[in-house]
TrEMBL record:
Role noted for this protein: Transfers and isomerizes the ribose moiety from AdoMet to the 7-aminomethyl group of 7-deazaguanine (preQ1-tRNA) to give epoxyqueuosine (oQ-tRNA).
GO biological process, one term: tRNA queuosine(34) biosynthetic process
Keyword Mitochondrion (UniProt): no
Name of the protein in its database record: S-adenosylmethionine:tRNA ribosyltransferase-isomerase
Species of origin: Acidithiobacillus marinus
Length: 345
């Protein structure tokens, strides 16, 4: 299986550079993986596509201002992008500099704080902060890590809009973008429809911005990301399935959290890391439907939705979305997808 099997032509002007004025004003392409058919809709109509007794699972991670500037002892500039925190004073970062960082090197941050390079793995470095906490430094010195396909500097409005309204647990370097469509009016409409919701946490890491470098899909290794699936979420999922309701993941991050917690066929609470890579041929153990945004060509997220609803179906749906001038990627429109296999096993 080649990564070139997961490509499509996308005019650059369809890549959304700004959010819409209203979160719930986006379009939504509804894709039936079993029939291979689709229908144009709107995110505000999501309650009409759901059934009373269905359960939405949302990711309550909070995006950190995760991009930092630092300097080597020689004065050379270093750009840091948080990958994941390991504690108050330790974390993995993607580092860009004119010359590679090495263990033992010290970096100076904007307000005089210092960090030491402890380890290096590819472009990742593990940094130990000499004093204070990374969370405090990121909040005071960092900038919002807008994706590289948004060709503008972060603005004050991104502090709110590149964040879900239910964001709670800090730790992500990218937003769980399917959740950006939800506002209070949409949540109220879902409540009125009898659709329940629960939360999981998956802190999106910097690896989400990195391309698949291997030509062969199966050779790709995912970056580790930390997650938490609670007993409360597990109980709600079990109860939903027992009454014949559907479990709907809001975003690929919620999907990967649930599928990690249920990867051996039994859903259990889970706290830890995941490198779960879902591509065609992989089976889904937990989710019955997926709400997600449109994803980059040849990305692991496009491979995930192709695994769920079928590669031919999804690429045809993407071609329709291009022709119909949908807005793509983080600040773009949504898809509601049901599986090619109606009974995930």
């Amino acid at each position: 299986m080649l990564k070139s099997d997961f490509t499509y032509e996308l005019p650059p002007e369809l890549i959304a550079q700004e959010p819409l004025a209203q979160r719930s004003a986006s379009r939504m392409l509804v894709v039936d993986g079993q029939s291979g058919q689709w229908q144009d809709s709107w995110i505000r109509q999501l309650p009409e596509w759901l059934h009373p007794g269905d359960l939405l699972i949302l990711n309550d991670t909070r995006v950190l201002p995760a991009r930092l500037h630092a300097y080597k002892e020689t004065g050379g500039a270093v750009e840091l992008l948080l990958d994941r925190l390991l504690g108050e004073q330790d974390g993995w970062f993607l580092a860009k500099s004119s010359k590679a960082l090495r263990p033992g090197m010290r970096l100076r941050l904007a307000h005089g704080d210092e960090a030491e390079v402890l380890e290096k793995e590819g472009m990742d470095v593990r940094l130990h902060l000499q004093q204070g906490s990374w969370l405090d430094i990121l909040e005071s010195e960092g900038s919002m890590p807008l994706p590289p396909y948004i060709h503008r500097a972060p603005e004050a409005s991104d502090q709110e809009r590149y964040q879900t309204i239910y964001a709670d647990k800090p730790g992500a370097v990218a937003a769980p973008t399917a959740g950006l469509h939800f506002d209070e009016a949409l949540l109220d409409a879902l409540d009125a429809r009898g659709v329940e919701r629960r939360f999981v946490t998956l802190h999106v890491g910097a690896g989400t911005f990195l391309p698949v470098r291997s030509d062969h899909v199966q050779e790709h290794v995912m970056h580790a990301e930390t997650l938490m699936v609670s007993q409360e979420a597990v109980d709600a999922i079990v109860a939903t399935k027992a009454r014949g309701g559907r479990v709907i993941a809001v975003g690929t991050t919620a999907c990967r959290a649930l599928e990690t917690a249920g990867k051996d066929g039994v859903l259990r609470p889970y706290v830890g890391e995941t490198r779960l890579f879902l591509y065609p041929g992989k089976k889904f153990q937990v989710i019955d439907a997926l709400l997600t945004n449109f994803h980059l060509p040849e990305s692991t997220l496009l491979m995930l939705v192709c695994a769920f609803a079928g590669t031919e179906c999804m690429l045809a749906a993407y071609r329709h979305a291009v022709a119909a001038r949908y807005r793509f990627f983080s600040y773009g429109d949504a898809m509601f997808i049901t599986p090619a296999d109606p009974e995930p096993v």
